[in-house]
Structures are given as structure tokens and as C-alpha cells.
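Hey,
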Amino acid sequence: MKMKHMPKQLLNIFGTDGVRGLANSGFITPENSMKLAISAVKHFKKDMEDFKVVIGKDTRLSGYMLEPALTAGFIAAGADVMLLGPIPTPAVSVITRTLRANLGVVISASHNPYKDNGIKFFNDKGFKISPLDEEKITEFFFGEMKLVGPEKMGKAKRINDIDGRYVEFVKASFIRNLTLSGIKIVVDCANGAAYKVAPEVFWELGAEVIAIGNEPDGLNINEECGTTNPKLLQKTVVEHKADIGFALDGDADRVIVVDEKGTIIDGDYIIAIIATDWRNRGKLRGNKVVATTMSNMALWKYLNSIGIELIRSDVGDKYVIEKMIEIESNLGGEKSGHIVPLDYSTTGDALVSALQVLNYLVSNSKKASDIHNLYKPYPQVFKNLNKEIDIHSNYVKKTIFSIENEILQKRGRLIIRKSGTENIIRVMIESENEEDVEKALVVIDKAVSQL
């Protein structure tokens, strides 16, 4: 089937992080999940005799619907399935490799509310599949569904010791002669996939652990907790006089840090502290780090001052990883808290990243608040636009040109892009001068109101 003969919706199945949408509608239905599974096997299996798939999920209610639907599709296409249950996204990446599976699948909508869900794939090396793979799967999805005969159907098996395997994997990234003894840590599990493993990791390394957001009920994932709403974590850290707090998102592939004063330390700072530590220990490959176009200009300035080159990628952790592989870097990430420590994980890993921060703080006898001393961020504003806007229209281009040349000049940046995970337009304004940011925001608000 040729691409030009396919329906328009063909190109809209995959976003920046798999297939995502409102559960039980659109592409996130049992029928379409089965079709997606069959299509993935048709693309990847080819002439292989045996084909193994691992499936993990977060704690959303709709996961109970999508997991058996995907399993049925894989079995009908001739693949064997290993079910991991609720487990962080990076754990699925790890287990895909260690079980020598051909494909890893995660049922999650990450930081989105429980009403949404998604399906994302990892290849046999634990990396998210390529855009070309997505195109091929989509091509099969809109084609004829051919199933195997009864004698060639796959089987399903539930793996019961995944939590322990992943906890040991994460702990191995912490410096062996260090301990977290005497350190009080608050961890916000976002009522998500890491609600069991996250507290266990820190406790087994010696910390006193206060866990919040660790009582999922299928409906409360990311609800007033986690990386998108860290207020509860900030409050809890201060109330309990904790040394540090970590907020995870629903599938634990991103992390935000809160210092002992309750101040947020975002993904840019996490990149900075890990890069500093790895450079000092001779672990930072090529003294190069990857961050996205949304990362603060002050991060670039700081890294440059200590001899580390920052290379920018498009937004999305798979684009970060793509650029890391291209330039042979072992550290990259996003301001949102997706941090990819490539020596350990082939995707964003909240818990491994948290331990890298603790590596530096413990080995250098630093407080979490000391991280703020690395650099002062440039004033930066983020705004989400819910209107249907053609960001490539002449009107939008003229508005951008006006702001960049008349207000920001060479002191700052304006970025307008479509979200790959939600149906919104994201706007970022940044400048050395806070007045520039405020003026640019007024112009944008006025321009949007006239659309």
C-alpha cells in the first residue's frame, strides 16, 4: 500500500510519544489496540520464527481494558506476550533487553490525567521505535488485518518479580561506597507506576523515606501530585524538614527535585548537576550534553563556562536520544524532567536520574539548595493556547517576526510549537531582560484574542 493512497488520519496516529488520546475513544479503544498490536508484529516479526513482546502499564483504570486488548492482538498475530503489570516506563525498556524480547510496550499517558491513555513501543535494544517504524506500523494499521492460523498463535505469561529486578537495576547506578543513611527523602509517586518501587529504592540505600502519591485507585494518577503539580511535595518536604524531595510523573520517566526549602529544581538544573558530577568523575562522554530548544539559555552559558558543550534537539525525549547517539553523548534531557542517563537507561528514567543528583550531593556534602548556585536562569514564561491555531500561517509568522525583532532582539527567544502529547499550542518566551518577556506576552495575548 502506498502512502499517497492512505487516509489523512494515517499521519496522526503517533505523536511525539506513541499513540495517545482519550481512553475508549479515537485510537485508544480495544479494537484499535488489537489492530495496533497486530500491525506492530507484522512490521517487526517478518520471517522470525519466535517473537516475544513485553507489556507494562501505569495505574490508569483504562489499562485494564487496553492490556488484554493488546495481548489478544499480539497472540492473534503469532507473538508470545509477557505481562509485567504496573511498572515504570524505563523498567519496560530494561526488561525488554534483559528478557531478550523483540518488542516492549508501555500502556501510559505519562503526565496526562487518568482519562487519557497511550501506547508506546520500544525496540529490542530498549529504544523507542523510529519515525520510520511508526510509519510502517500505521501503514499496516490501515491495511488488511491478516491473522495467523490456530496452530501459530502466541501465548501469554505474567512475570511476577519485575519490581525487584528494576529496583536492583536502579540501585546499581548509585556510587557503591556511598549511602543515603541520615538523609530524609520525600518521594511523590504521582499515584502512578512507581508507587511501589520508588520508595523501595531510596529505603534500600539507607534513606528515611516519606512516600506520598503512593495510593493509586485508577482515577487519581497525576491528580494534584507528581511533576505537573509539585505543591504537595513542596509542602511535605518543608513540614517534615526533609533534605530533598523527588516528584515523579505517572510512568516515572521524568522527575522534578524540591530542595530542603521547598524550592523547585527543574530538569535544566538536573542536567546541570549531573553533567557537573559526571565531568568531575570523568564519566561525561566527549564533554557534550543534549538539551531541547525549551531549555534555559543560562544552562547553555553555565555548561559552556565549565567546558561542556550543549547541543540542542527538538522537544521530545526520543529526539534528545537521537541527537545523543548522533554526537556520542551519554547525557541529555528536557526542562520538563525527562533525563536520559544513557550509560544506564535507553529512555528517560526518573529514579536513576534522582540517584545521580544524590551521587553529587552526598559525595560533595552539599545541600539540595546549593544546586541553585550553579547559575541564575533567564526570565522565562510558558503559556498553553487551547485555540485551534495554524502556527505556520502568515499572521503567526508576522507576530513572531515582530516580537523577535522589535522586543527580544538578540537578548532572547520565542518558540511556538504544537504539543505532541496534548491538543494545545505551547509558547515559550525567554530573555535576559524580564521586561522583554512581559512585553512579548502582551503582544501574544492580543494576537491570540484577534484570531
